[in-house]
Amino acid sequence: MSAGFVDAHHHVWDLGVRDQDWITGPQLSPLRRNFTLDDLRPEASSAGVTSTVVVQTVTVAEETPELLSLADGSDLVAGVVGWTDLTSPGVADELARLRGLPGGGRLVGIRHQVQGERNPGWLLRADVRRGLGAVASAGLAYDLVVRADQLSDCARVAALHPELTFVLDHLGKPPIASGALEPWASALRALAALPNTVCKLSGMVTEADWAAWTVADLRPYAETVLDAFGAGRVLWGSDWPVCVLASSYGGVVGVARGVVAGLSAGEREAVFGGTARGVYGLPPAA
């Protein structure tokens, strides 16, 4: 693995500070405990990861300043993808306020849990689009956490905002457990046709059969992403600690190494660091 290995997608939480209300049911019970940067650090070090991007988990305004403060005191967290209310008329002022907080210089993107929105076309609403314009004006990226059936909306909104870089999380959540490629693959390619879009090679193991997945199950989806976007527009993320439902941190690193093994050294460098640094404006590799 090259120097400057970036984990472009992970989370942290402390249940003593705030509940993670999405952790429900026995299947998700392994996640119902604290996961801290101190827990991540040895895993990342063992894998050779030198910097990370921590990503929001809940639609609570207080979380983003906490993540910025965490990054401010860390030599590992290079970027924060936070949350703010895109529909607020004051979204531009709020983004400026966040940038002025301790660690505010490490705010690199904004994300909203679009996957949980029941209203069709949420991304295309006028108030949301106004907020996306403010994100672009602030020089930030926008992470898309969506279901596969929402990919067509992603393509439409990305076409309407060529000034904004859209980062697709978790491959757009393809139905890996079922083995089906369509209609996900066609919708993904339509999004990838837009030059202001990139895709995270993340979250695959938890879209597969948690107990029985193999690299062979994941490979067609990873190869579709790499073919559609090109390695220069793909970035790797562990999705730790959510990944522990189906794999260890080292396991998802191994998956990523396996599915990009056929790429050139330069292409692998892009996936494991270069793309993340370019998209999120992270510091250059040491």
Automatic annotation (TrEMBL):
InterPro entries linked to this entry: Amidohydro-rel, Metal_Hydrolase, Metallo-dep_Lactonases
Residues of the Amidohydrolase-related domain: 6-282
Family that this chain belongs to: Belongs to the metallo-dependent hydrolases superfamily.
Protein name: Amidohydrolase
